[in-house]
Amino acid sequence: SENSLESLVSIGNICRSPIAEAVFRKLVTDEKLEHKWRTDSAAVSDWNVGRFPDSRALSCLRNHGIETAHKARQITKEDFQTFDYILCMDESNLRDLNRKSNQVKDCKAKIELLGSYDPQKQLIIEDPYYGNEKDFFFVYEQCLRCCKAFLEKYH
């Protein structure tokens, strides 16, 4: 069956999750596995719906040769029913997602912390919004390690 990944769900879908989505999409493309994965990202809240990612997230991705055209959206009931995996950034994401998924009949998504795949055991991917360029780079590195490990496990 076709695997699908909702790459990182975060609160606003403008910093961490678009980075994770773009990183995973590039990994999948490099491995020639695009036909097997449907990758997206979404927010738990509706704060930033329709907005492009934070300019620091875009610049961090660009520095690593990755482009993204993602616009923030909020997670939907259908996401829980169609995606195989919903990977999130931190404990509050996890709590909110589990709560939302309990209201969805036939939820098939496995909801996990992306950080649970980190070989360096950094479980939480901290929000870099109030930080600086270095914090965005750190998030990128974490997402890269986790997405690689996740892909190795499931492809």
Automatic annotation (TrEMBL):
Statement: the UniProt record of this protein carries the keyword Hydrolase: yes
Keyword tags: Cytoplasm, Hydrolase, Protein phosphatase
EC id: 3.1.3.2, 3.1.3.48
Main location: cytoplasm
Any one Pfam family match given in the protein's UniProt record, by short name: LMWPc
Catalysis performed (reactions): O-phospho-L-tyrosyl-[protein] + H2O = L-tyrosyl-[protein] + phosphate; a phosphate monoester + H2O = an alcohol + phosphate
Domain of life: Eukaryota
Gene Ontology molecular function: acid phosphatase activity; non-membrane spanning protein tyrosine phosphatase activity
A Gene Ontology cellular-component term: cytoplasm
Phosphotyrosine protein phosphatase I domain: residues covered: 9-153
Record-annotated active site: 16, 127 (proton donor)
Subcellular localization, as worded in the UniProt entry: Cytoplasm
Family: Belongs to the low molecular weight phosphotyrosine protein phosphatase family.
Function: Acts on tyrosine phosphorylated proteins, low-MW aryl phosphates and natural and synthetic acyl phosphates.
Protein name: Low molecular weight phosphotyrosine protein phosphatase
Organism this protein belongs to: Sylvietta virens
